Amino acid sequence: MKGIVFREFLDMVEGRFGMEVVDRIIEEADLPSGGAYTSVATYDHDEILRLVDQLHQATGAPAPELVRAFGRHLFGRFRTLYPALFLKVDSSFDFLERVETIIHIEVRKLYPDAELPTFECARPGPGRLVMLYRSQRPLADLAEGLIEGCIEYFGEAIEVGREDLPPGPGGETRARFELTRRSQP
Ligand code: HEM
Fold this sequence. Notes:
Number of strands: 4
Structural class: alpha+beta
Bound molecules: protoporphyrin IX containing FE
Largest sheet: 4 strands, antiparallel
């Protein structure tokens, strides 16, 4: 996983819990990298899971909730860091469909060794979007947080359902997200 993701994570932890907690979780996680991340370098994704586990122990918040919160935070940061990817997109469904077809392709141009998930999207009916997440990494909670951050950014009333599916070939993580536009009252 790219250093930029780790740096954003540690920035979020600093903003919410303070520098002391950042120092403590880095120390307790006993990381191969030592916790000094460079944006463009690549680190074992397991380090983020170790940091999350330490943050869970430091704060008592459940680990999946911490990863989702990070996903929501990260979406806001992507908005600031990559404004061009947001041009001419005016709904979360359109944006989310572009993650696989455009956005992560651009990410790979920037970082050829990026470790990215795949999303298969379908619109089974009006006001509905289904996204099938597949990855060699167990980061469906991060996907959920990013999806929530996206919906929040576009200010839409959309419910997100999630079903964790049995692992795919080679133990890949699979989850199905079902987004439904809430009807106006
Ligand atoms: C402007 C928008 C976005 C940008 C610039 C972006 C960029 C990135 C980058 C740089 C990584 C890290 C790759 C690595 O560490 O090697 C990543 C991973 C990831 N992205 Fe995106 N992304 C965007 C939107 C989204 C959205 C909306 C979703 C959810 C639908 C998503 C789902 C994920 C997930 C789950 C990962 C973690 C890797 C994995 O699960 O295998 N991304 N993305």
